[in-house]
Description:
With about 110 residues, chain A is mostly beta strands. Chain A has strands at about 5, 10-15, 20-25, 30-40, 45-50, 55-60, 60-65, 70-75, 85-95, 100, 105-110.
Amino acid sequence: QKEVEQDPGPLSVPEGAIVSLNCTYSNSAFQYFMWYRQYSRKGPELLMYTYSSGNKEDGRFTAQVDKSSKYISLFIRDSQPSDSATYLCAMSMDTGRRALTFGSGTRLQVQP
Amino acid sequence: DSGVTQTPKHLITATGQRVTLRCSPRSGDLSVYWYQQSLDQGLQFLIQYYNGEERAKGNILERFSAQQFPDLHSELNLSSLELGDSALYFCASRAGSTDTQYFGPGTRLTVL
C-alpha cells in the first residue's frame, strides 16, 4: 500500500463548477501538506501549503487538512478551463530533510 | 517561472550510456532535491543536497549519483542506463527558512 493515495481520475467538470480533490495518507508523521498543479510535461507548480490541521484559502483555492482522519482536500471554486491539469498532493515530515512524498495525481478537465 | 533552471530539456540516449543532468536552484536556496517522475511510479524523491553536502536519500539506484557544487548548482549522474530509466527528472529547491519546494521545468530522458 502506498503512503499517499490519490484517485487518478480523470475528473471532468463543467466550467464554473466547484471541484473537490482528495488524498489520504497512512503515515501520521506527515506534518506539512502541499498541493501542486502540473500541466502536461511541465514542472509541478506550488498552489497551496498547509502546516498541520486546518484550512487555508487563497483566491479560488481552499486547502483542508484533517490529521485525525489522515485526509486532505483541495477545493477549486468557479473552475476555469485553464484549471485543466494534473493536481498532485504532497506531504513531508517535520525533519530538516523535508523530502516530499507525492500522491499519484488527479487529472482534472474543466469543460467550457 | 519558479526560478529553478534545468538543462537539458530533452535527452535521448542508448542503453548502457551515461548522462548528466544539471540544475540551478533559486537564488539563495541552499537545498536541492532531485525527483524522478515515471508513468508507473509517479513522482519519487531521489536525493537531497544542502549547501554541498548530501542530506537524504530516497529511492535512488546505485547507478545514479549526484553532487552539489560551491556555486550551489547540482548535477545528477545516471550511468549504465536502462530502458526503465526513461522518465522526467525534476529538481526542486528550498530556502532554509521555508517548508516549500519550487520545481524546475524538468529534463525528459529517453533511453532507447
